[in-house]
From TrEMBL, chains A, B, C, D, E, F:
Pfam families found in the cross-reference section: RNase_PH, RNase_PH_C
Binding locations of phosphate: R86, G124, T125, R126
Family recorded in the similarity comment: Belongs to the RNase PH family.
Residues of the Exoribonuclease phosphorolytic domain: 10-140, 157-224
Gene3D superfamilies listed in its UniProt record: GHMP Kinase, N-terminal domain (3.30.230.70)
Record flagged with keyword Signal: no
Transferase listed as a keyword: yes
Subunit structure: Homohexameric ring arranged as a trimer of dimers.
Protein name: Ribonuclease PH
Known EC number: 2.7.7.56
Function of the molecule: Phosphorolytic 3'-5' exoribonuclease that plays an important role in tRNA 3'-end maturation. Removes nucleotide residues following the 3'-CCA terminus of tRNAs; can also add nucleotides to the ends of RNA molecules by using nucleoside diphosphates as substrates, but this may not be physiologically important. Probably plays a role in initiation of 16S rRNA degradation (leading to ribosome degradation) during starvation.
Xref: NCBIfam families: RNasePH (TIGR01966)
Length: 237, 237, 237, 237, 237, 237
């Protein structure tokens, strides 16, 4: 049924390789099947102007794709002179999601920037970015705690994300690119380790969906996120 | 409890004034309380390159805010030299939502651009844009049908949108700005006249929410959308 | 003779609706026939760097057109990534004209930004912007005086603007779009309540004009400005 | 009275050196006192889209200043990433003014671009650009006629421009920079060889002026333009 | 002497991992010590306008660095809105160097774009990009030959690049970042497998160098390039 | 052999006219045959952020071409909205080269910006910019020393630049445009008065070159630079 032969509720193999690059305070290469995203976390002692002096920390994210991460080459955004709408939407989502898992008081007045760069894409890059980005963030915070710059752990609960959608009339978990490009309804669920919701984005393109279908997709998402959080825990143990 | 004194499930007064401007093929000024959005629909005989020759139509949207639509003046995006991330996210949402209510085969190979410009803002501008934008679109399509350019009505079902959120611990319908700026959880539901979902976006900032809360918000949304669709129907009768 | 049937020295009906939006310190919707411009005045306590510490105030303006204010849709400048030459010329003119009517010492070291956004266009938008912008400015200054922030009235004399041109060989007052697009010679006169000139801009495109014609146009302009200043006075009484 | 010791109606020395550069179809270095502008005219066989196929020609202009043409270094516009408002205003004025002196039917479907680059500035650069730009244009058209590409001379009448203003309470001709930066009222008159007006731009900054003053300035301008047209004629004889 | 303990003429360990990503026609991850660059080659059937119809092929390159490839985070160029001067210089150099090793007649009218993205930087990224880029290019051309799209091998001779410089008064081969940031004289030599020169760039910053020193550096470069070409040959065997 | 009839080792006539414009602290118009570049040096009391407080001075450069400096009109970079890759490469080279001839301690914490604007181009504009730019810089420093702002002369040694290349199989000195556009190998040598090298850039486009050829070109360059330094010395005596 699914092009990859997976069961409807079966995720692609997940692997998380920490410390893939040496300069960042935290880094991880996450692979969800053929989707590979390099995530790095950078700690800086400055915060955005709107929280200066508040004692609160900040977590933000940026997202990019290498031009040939995809099947046909996409124009490099640096050369086009601006980030596209899709990029901006995604990086806002990543930042928002990661912030939801952080106690900004405990973090203290510093900023952590999570860069998520897609080396190879096969659907679900924004979810992989959130899941892998959380690992990079966790590692960077570990370093801050080890050095004594942060005393009380600001990481409240792991954050992970998974896509679901309706493909060929069936609710499926973790869409790859061939599914994603055909699905009339698909979206992303960002959740915590304790199954609380952080963000739900479920869109239809040329289609609609019922509340019942929405509920089924949410069930699938809970299953997927549980597996991802296990992988995050293993990688950062 | 609510700053405006409204009940938890009470929307702000809605009014839709059609033909507010004379040049556009369809136009409507929608007012949801103190949020006022001017929506116009422009019909053009060209379509984007990626569907040229397909026989399919296209519906797209652009969104803007007058610099002093808000309490403090925002920098004009034309002068800043680019549309901000929030603007881009919103106009992509409007376009996607309106397309879900249109039979693109019946529309034929033409493009309708819905411009939503916020004259005055008090929260919920993207929802008002979708609801008012649908009216402008409906009116423009009416003109195409009257002239015989379009034979079979491409408008499948009305599309409307409403915000919901958790304010001071309580689920509330149709957040105004004072609520929106305090709510830890809020989002938008875009639905059709037959209660099908088109898009759900529920975000938390520095908070999380449970599936039960999600369900309550969805109940509120269904109530709100029903009222909006009644207003759309009255305005385009 | 004129497409609208007006007499050569007859202006379109003028109306000025104050407080059209609620956030700005001053706001007015001016209608000159089918040309409708929303003007808002924003007071800020900062001034541009070049007058910092001088004790002088500043008045500046920005101008924009909604994409479908015109007969065919124009590309949104925010999306194009810059303000066009025409926009920049117009907003510089509005700012310069309004400053000529203000005692910047009496205003004190603060800035007032007048935003003029064309909701519907039918020729003469820059003149309507100046005339309506003055009303928004007057209202904002009234508020500053009422609050005691400004003691001595900095508004020296009302400022209004009207277009004139040579249409079908005849000097006419207040050109609408059908006239404007045909006139070989046209321009704008910005004047004060005491008939002093602030700015004259008279251009020919593919034509020239004599000093005699220039004088006739100036006579028409004086008549028009007198009517506009009466409308301003009524609106701000 | 005047910083330069000139009489009120005395222009600065004017010189026009043709063929200053070798590549352009027409070129001239105009010097009005210490204001030096290099003007080149480029002939191309294409026209802007909006007149394609009309048989009409087009004349357009671009304006620039070398960064250290002025007393303090200005930021290079190419490095700033856009042309400033002043630049855009000026180049639109130059193009409009030169077009008024050209029979676009006789020119035929080709475009002439007049580039005006200020090598050294001391006030009046836009007027010098128009006057010198006309010479470059005349030379380029001469070449077209010599080669037989254009049969009937499209140059209707010479076009020249001069600034006037009220300095220290006195109407003066051809303001240099020290005057220009002090004058409360100043502007530019663009006229033809037969004393017809093409464009009048008279602005006040923090001041106003009467119709009588306007008339005196126009008398001065007529005197100045006559001298400029004599210089143009001598240079292109 | 050298921070890394290497001998003056000792290169860092080189490894080239081919097919690091799956979508590109050719791809290689080159590691020169801690400098890691992902190179991909994309084949397209179109060529730049200036050679359209000439029958000649084109090879071009783009270069980027992930924001945290370096010790401190650099601003993402896509977000800054333009590629910096250094980036542009480097990608022009890569393109020029690779073209020198290609017979553009044999390649036929198609374009190959080599993207070089630095995942981790420790000096010498442009040289690594050229050396690794050649491998990606070679692999992509192999594919074209295998499919029969290209008959005669257009790859004339391998192309590789190495940096040399004067560090602490001594000529050294293959500078790493600690050396590069201290060296007063350094540069890059791009050479072919048959020791012909393609490009020499030797710069001094706050220093100068003699012809004798230049000759010593060139001897070092010849040694380094020979080793790199052996690595390229092994990787593409 | 050479299109101009020059001997292989013969430069074009060089002239350097100082004080070509009056505002800059130093200015020179250099002519190398038909290549004419206006160079100005601007002294400012601020330095770039990265050396603030270091006591060191800075020398930087910007480069531009008038649109019709070349045989066909090039688009104005200010209008295109950015400086092209070639411009950026060249101005970085000019700045780097001039800095190599300056004792930045002796200069003191101030910045000198050298603007090089090509009025007419016939090959070799970057070399002419460096050679002429040095003269403007020398003159500006003279002024600083005369005023006592700088005590010890920071100008270490004259800096000049010349192009060489292989044209029609022969090594030639000082390529003009017809040679430059045909040469498969060409580059630039920047040297001091004492024959030390500052920068060597030797590129091949669709060709390669041997070390022997490189040595011959360097001999030619030494001859050329000696003549240029004589011209600089005469101009600044």
């Amino acid at each position: 049924m699914r092009p990859s032969g997976r069961a409807l509720d079966e995720m692609r193999p997940v692997s998380i390789e920490t410390d893939f690059t040496k300069h960042a305070e935290g880094s991880a290469l996450i692979r969800m099947g053929d989707t590979h995203v390099l995530c790095t976390a950078t700690v800086e002692d400055r915060v955005p102007p709107f929280i200066k002096g508040s004692g609160l920390g900040w977590v933000t994210a940026e997202y990019g794709m290498l031009p040939r991460a995809t099947n046909t080459r996409m124009r490099r955004e640096a050369s086009a002179g601006k980030q596209g709408g899709r990029t901006i939407e995604i990086q806002r989502l990543i930042g928002r999601s990661l912030r939801a898992g952080v106690d900004r008081v405990a973090l203290g007045e510093r900023q952590i920037t999570v860069d998520c760069d897609v080396l190879q894409a096969d659907g679900g890059t924004r979810c992989a970015s959130i899941t892998g980005g959380w690992v990079a963030l966790r590692l960077a915070v570990n370093k801050l705690m080890k050095s004594g710059d942060v005393i009380s752990d600001p990481m409240l609960d792991p954050v992970a994300a998974i896509s679901c959608g309706i493909y060929a009339g069936q609710p499926v978990l973790d869409l790859d690119y061939p599914e994603d490009s055909e699905a009339g309804v698909d979206g992303n669920f960002i959740m915590t380790g304790s199954r609380q919701l952080i963000e739900v984005q479920m869109s239809a393109e040329g289609a609609t969906y019922s509340r019942d279908q929405m509920n089924t997709l949410m069930d699938l998402a809970e299953k997927g996120v549980a597996e991802l959080i296990a992988a995050q825990t293993a990688a950062t143990a």
